Amino acid sequence: MEDLRKEIERRRTFAIISHPDAGKTTLTEKLLLYGGAIRLAGSVKSRKSKNYAVSDWMEIEKQRGISVTSSVMQFNYDGYVINILDTPGHQDFSEDTYRTLMAADSAVMVVDAAKGVEDQTRKLFHVCSLRNIPIFTIVNKMDREARDPFELMEDIENELGIKTYPMNWPIGSGKDFKGVYERESSSIQVFSSAGTHGSSTVASVKGSVDDPVFKDLIGDSYHEELKENIELLDIAGNEFDMGEVLKGNLSPVFFASALTNFGIEPFLKSFLELTSPPLPRATSEGEEIDVFSDDFSAFVFKIQANMNPQHRDRIAFIRICSGKFKKGMEVYHYQGKNKIKLSQPQQFLAQDREVVEEAYAGDIIGVFDPGIYAIGDTLTEPKNKFKFEGIPAFAPEHFARVRPMDTIKRKQFVKGITQVAQEGAIQVYKEHHIGMEEIIVGVVGTLQMDVLEFRLKNEYGVDIKIDHLPYRFVRWIETADVDLDNIDITSDTKLVTDLRGRNILLFQNEWGISWVLNHNDNLTLTDVGKVD
Ligand code: G4P
């Protein structure tokens, strides 16, 4: 029991979120490097993969390491066991990213110092804020020309509605980047431009801000300016409040340069100290399951098909929520209503997969899926039959009517579409009063539509016809007793239901949403499909 608690307490499970190009991959490499997971940074993934087209997707599909959709990497550092949930950089796969965030206990948000908050940062942040998980910010690329740090703080606060607390403060930027001042220890860490790209240690000089040696190192004017800035921060800035950090209301901010490896290890140390061990998860009944319980429980947050095309296998990624997992153990699959042995459990480390013997709450493992799991499914000890609250559906932005070219292939078509939807790669809707002969597919990114076409052809032998539809927004109807036949909608709004029978409206523009809200009293709409 003591051992179980110790093992769980040293786990930290988080996701890194960012707009493409802000430096997520570079940061991940550096973090793995500190854990000794890879000898030389630069090998996490081919950078080119983020600009892939469908043909590349297929190619990547063949190797399917950790490149395309989110996976997880585990490493040890300073007594901690760290699980990084990787998220795909390509925004067409962002629904996958959204769901991955459901398995994280905190998030690290990487912001480009020259660009500030960008589109994808905003969307991913929104998903994190739905769960009130702690969000840490890294303002990256300080070795390049950057925006004024006060302006960047303001940008994060105004754009995202979260308060900020700079843990350190940059001294200059770009060619004149001198280093950072660490607020907690009141010390300066001087940047060495020699570049330490591939190494895990950074040479730096550390000491008190008043130490005259720093005046010489960073120059008189920077020294003066720094002292003024520190004073301003102390007087006018937010106070550090751990409770607010844990609720996701206050984001600790670190200025750093992932490429040159500057400020990354201090960030990691501070982050590990400030974040909590795995957080408890609630059941559909609202009861919280004790993370440290002896009993194993987990939920499926991601399904990845065809990791090995020769075998057409599917891997279900599960997040362990309580207790300990042992290889070959028998668990109860709540949604399937049967007992199963978890076969071929795997853990992921950079490009390698290895079979896991045991894993603890907070860890993520991949289990072989013979086509029985769906996103959000619960696994428990056979004696405990409960289900965790589900994973919400996120709003797609592209819609199309999809049907098989050849009506004889109807059965395979429905099977294929349903499986791909179960994996969470697409959302499927039916029109009100019309059955499965008219299927509308919703995706977050258009590349997913191409992937659907490719997969139906290759895996199910069905050629499909895709007619794109002009809808852009989806809203789930929250009102329980809504009279669907008498709901007042504009002619360019469509009423559909999803595979779980939830009522949905598809809109072409935001104006349509306000129109419907204005013409239907007591109608409540949401942009996140509620969980059950
Ligand atoms: P992403 O995963 O968020 O999409 O970003 P990634 O780490 O791939 O970084 C995007 C680009 O920004 C890369 O350059 C990377 O080297 C660079 N970069 C990341 N962190 C820093 C930093 O702290 N300082 C500077 N100056 N650059 C940084 P690239 O030219 O696109 O790729 P590569 O040719 O360097 O591999």
Topology at a glance:
Blueprint: H1 2-9, E1 11-18, H2 24-34, H3 54-63, E2 72-77, E3 80-85, H4 94-100, E4 106-112, H5 119-130, E5 135-140, H6 149-160, E6 163-166, E7 168-171, E8 179-182, E9 187-190, E10 206-208, H7 212-218, H8 220-236, H9 242-246, E11 250-255, H10 264-274, E12 281-282, E13 288-289, E14 297-305, E15 314-322, E16 324-326, E17 330-333, E18 338-341, E19 346-349, E20 352-355, E21 358-360, E22 364-369, E23 378-380, E24 393-394, E25 398-404, H11 410-422, E26 427-431, E27 439-443, H12 446-460, E28 464-469, E29 473-477, E30 494-498, E31 503-507, H13 510-519, E32 525-526, E33 528-529
Helix pairs in contact: 7-8, 11-12
Textual characterization of the structure:
The structure is a single chain. Helices cover 26% and strands 29% of the residues. The radius of gyration is 24 Å and the shape is globular. A hairpin with a 7-residue loop joins strand 26 and strand 27. Helix 7 packs across helix 8 (220-236) and helix 11 (410-422) packs across helix 12 (446-460). Strands 28-25-27-26-30-31-29-32 form an eight-stranded antiparallel beta sheet, with helices on one face. A seven-stranded mixed beta sheet has the order 2-3-1-4-5-11-6, sandwiched between helices. With 532 residues, it is an alpha+beta fold. Mean pLDDT is 84; it is low at 38-70. Residues 18, 20-26, 47, 50, 89, 140-141, 143-144, 257-259 line the site of guanosine-5',3'-tetraphosphate (G4P). Keywords: Cytoplasm, GTP-binding, Nucleotide-binding, Protein biosynthesis.
